[in-house]
Amino acid sequence: MRVLAEGKIEQLFGVLDRSTELIQKAKDQSYLDSLIETLGFIQSDDDEDPGLTEADIKKLTNIYAGFNPDEYTAETIRKGIQMAILKAIRIDKIQANYQITPDTIANVIGYIVSGIFHGKKELSLLDPAMGTGNLLTTIYHQLETSIGVTPTVSGIENDDAMFELAADSVELQKIHAELFHEDTIQNVLAPVVDAVVSDLPIGYYPIDANAKGFATHSESGHSYVHHLMIEFGMKHVKPGGFGFFLVPSQLFQTSEAKQLLKWMQGKIYLQGLLNLPKELFQNSAAQKAILILQNSGEGAKQVDPVMLGEFPSFKDQQAFTKFLTEIDDWEQNDLL
Fold this sequence. Notes:
alpha/beta; methyltransferase; Adenine-specific DNA methylase; 8-stranded mixed sheet; transferase; 336 residues; 17% strand; Rossmann fold; 10 strands; 11 helices; single chain; YtxK-like_N; DNA binding
């Protein structure tokens, strides 16, 4: 079954890749822009494009001739698009903020979310920095499979290209999603949800005036965008709801962390901070962790003990499974 699924992913990637390369060469533009056009083409009945010759259009028609999106599962479509985006990042030498959350990490976050919300009949998710939507859609499918819930999902993204990729991806996967093409820090009117999930951008937010309305803004100079995003996210979580954020492991060890901790005091519970394996990152400074926060209200309380630790190597299946079991025990016996 797995070999069959992998074959379908390769098949879909082949269609996307051949079409993208043709458009890239014909228009002398980036692979990423050409991929966006490809995703638009395969969802449209309009086969005209003033930038392509009749011969190019005919070649594209031949590429798409055997393509029927109904023959692919939503998860296959997600993975096929992911492969094409990864090629775009490599070919176009795209900046770090375009990097996709790897499935290994997305699946771990999804596992934790599934454990905490096990037994729920309805669930709403928001990603305030959704990028190409890979993390959000990975967790969406995981929740459907593991706990039998089809969540309602929302996402926010400011970058034009990433937003278009996310919008095309969720449409092809037939996921009903509310997507906002806006700057999150300008206080988007996003829904209040059960859980926020996000692989946060790291660094400074350039527009100080927009950050002034946030309690986590820096007292001098630019503010950390990941601090602002955490605050925004938790403001859009229901009482007793959760935030699951991919953050720098050193989040609470910087001089700017005092603003973040001050804002959290009395209203946001730090329930867990789980470092990801060092082997996934180029150096210790780049290491990331899964931050688990919970809003006060609805019977929520500060858990004791807070779940702190570091995942063993994903290659050590026995140790990794043991650590997941420890998380399960903590969720059921301490957190919930």
